[in-house]
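Board notes, transcribed. Complex of a protein with nicotinamide-adenine-dinucleotide.
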Amino acid sequence: MSVQDMIDGPILGTASTFPVFDPATGLVIADVSDGTAVDASAAVDAAAAAFPGWAATAPRERAEILRRAYELMVVDRDRLTDLICSENGKPRADARAEVDYAAEFFRWFGEEAVRTEGGYGINPAGTAHTVVTHRPVGVAALVTPWNFPAAMATRKIGPALAAGCTVVLKPAAETPLTALAIAELLSEAGVPDGVVNVVPTTDPGAVVGTWLADSRVRKISFTGSTGVGRLLLRQAADRVVNASMELGGNAPFVVAADADIDAAVAGAMIAKFRGSGQACTAANRFYVHSSVADEFVARFGAPIRALRVGPASDPATEIGPLVSARAAAGVRALVDDAVLDGATIAYQADIPAGECYVAPMLLTDVRPTARILGEEIFGPVAPVVVWDDEDTLLRWINESEFGLAAYVYSGRLQDAMRIGAAIDAGMVGINRGVVSDPAAPFGGTKQSGLGREGAREGLREFQETQYFSIDT
Ligand code: NAD
């Protein structure tokens, strides 16, 4: 299969291509046009030309197109699931859940497109009426990671289109096929040519750098690692480009003395192992109260040991390969380092042969200062630390430079809320292992990012405020 980029509708014949691999087999599944700086500029030409028309399109019409895109994604669920499985490697159930979650952003933002609020007031001196409006920020550059190839794209495209922006999107080179398929569905749903332009590339610096240097691009919305986010913020500073950043996480998972251990284990399995541990919201460090530590470790360890690891093509698979051999080697290195530092591999699952597989495992005896607790693991490894007093627990948690998600399990809501409120993070799951929801503002504090996606806040990221001061 050979796939072109989507600039101003599909175009044919870009000179060079790059291969996309199935991480389970290492086999090439498609060749995709390799976008250059020239393609990046052509995409902005198309988006800038389409912007006035799309911004002037009635909100109801934009809403209905997004709604149709939602419906088309639902109808096409199986094909999109297959694409995610083959280019990302995640198990079928995870890929299927991602498609449903991703489609929901089109439905949610279709509903929000007709609800942009403004404001009215009289100034304190009584000399002017103040009318506040919100308008689309302009051409938006969107950059997405490989770990949720559908949802990270729709979480940006949905609000951008609802707000009246046109977009240029650069998906991760590991997973461009899902983004291209979504762009085709948007076109089928009635999105005019030039409104959504996708430029896959193996040279992200050239493509995104071109966009950030182009005065027609007014917005960068990035999801990925903190390191790349920092780099893009520096580039955005040159032209003071409006920036939203969804960056890395290092979620703590707290189990209090009075937690329901069955519920905590069920939540931990989801929070840790969704997407084979490759989620920015993944529980990265488990803090378990000493009075329940042995029980939690035993009850959490048993289902970890039983996890079925294999390719997405096997319906029994619960944990897939990591996205690349490099990613897998990085996770193994973190585990080796923890073990050298005194940690014990208390439980682990069996894995098939293949350099992208990492055994799901539970580590005990982990020192609170171990490197594995300070870095985003991005793999199926659960390090457990035992805590006794809340002040020390909160100090350990808040020492992290990240502040994306956190999870707290406690039998007393007041305790869970107190601990959650003391954690410096954008999202806290209380007695649940999932925080992602299209209707809730997703995002982090500290070096986990700037701005929010989803909910009404997500729409505002693609709008500018304008106010009119009207003489009385
Ligand atoms: P990454 O930062 O390596 O890549 C993300 C995107 O940036 C990709 O499209 C990549 O091609 C592009 N990129 C890389 N170098 C670039 C450069 N020099 N200039 C412009 N673009 C560049 O991250 P990743 O490995 O693809 O994804 C994993 C990371 O994403 C993790 O840190 C994870 O926590 C984070 N993430 C965050 C969220 C969130 O919402 N906060 C969601 C998913 C993933």
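The pocket of nicotinamide-adenine-dinucleotide is lined by residues 143-148, 152, 170, 172-173, 204-205, 208, 223-225, 228, 231-232, 246-249, 280, 376, 404, 444, 449 (CB under 6 Å). The mean pLDDT is 96.
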